């Protein structure tokens, strides 16, 4: 039986948020959610297992009692059916301006807030916003009009840290997400041959992952080949046909029950050029040395410095194009991100992706990415770290 996030887990999360609210003297948390591909569902999926489609939403968590979802008219029944929230309201502020909804009872943000005050027995004055950077301008100013800007607090950082240490239930789900990702990557490897297009390879891999239970992808699948398509950090999967000697870089992050597995691999069809072979061996070595240090008690700054050191010593430091270690969960790339700026000590049951980048080169680029669970005295690989990067021509 496939693992899922159990019902009690959501109630436990609400209590964690309410404890944080008490600590920060907040009466209500408003967590924004929409259907943006990468970041849109992170808070709503974690809080109430809701994945918005078309219409945006706020998950409102009062200081006392259960959450409420406010959204558009077309989403009310969908949210009631698919989420763990049984209090869902359509409000005018979320309705499409050109639509009419004669079947739906529509209320306002002001009325919903008054109802939450009555049910919780607590006046709502101070409001914490989660996902503030994504809130549309007009909607944010509606909140200002309701509460006053001086009573609104950005809670992205503190709310994100509530998700940083995973529960046993979450770990089971993430392990399975990585099994899906690994099956997809194996299919990528098997599918590489002369004449096949990048999109055909992606289709083969996605079919395998969907059959295993993937809901979709946390980022668009990137199957890229040749110098031009592999050089950028982000690339579109195209109709380019694979040629003998090509470097093929695959990045896949299937989403399962709201959680992600993220794997990146370089492959070469046939015999790799000497410099490409050397760079693949370099990123493999840098990742392995970084993995050896991943354990409780190590700082974010220490972790960030390890892989950079080996790439810089090889004269490729300018191609280490971004921070290479990040958590994964309800976002494929989520805090904590282990940079030189972050003051954080690693804890047991955090999950990290070690992603070694080497992009923006004349010959192309690559990433090597694997997932790891921080354990009592080290880490556990969530996917196979063996890299069979050479694929013989077929």
From TrEMBL:
InterPro entries: Creatin/AminoP/Spt16_N, Creatinase/aminopeptidase-like, Pept_M24, Peptidase_M24B. Residues 173-376 form the Peptidase M24 domain. Gene3D superfamilies: Creatinase/methionine aminopeptidase superfamily, Creatinase/prolidase N-terminal domain. It comes from the Bacteria. Coiled coil: none annotated. This is Xaa-Pro peptidase family protein. It comes from Diplocloster modestus.
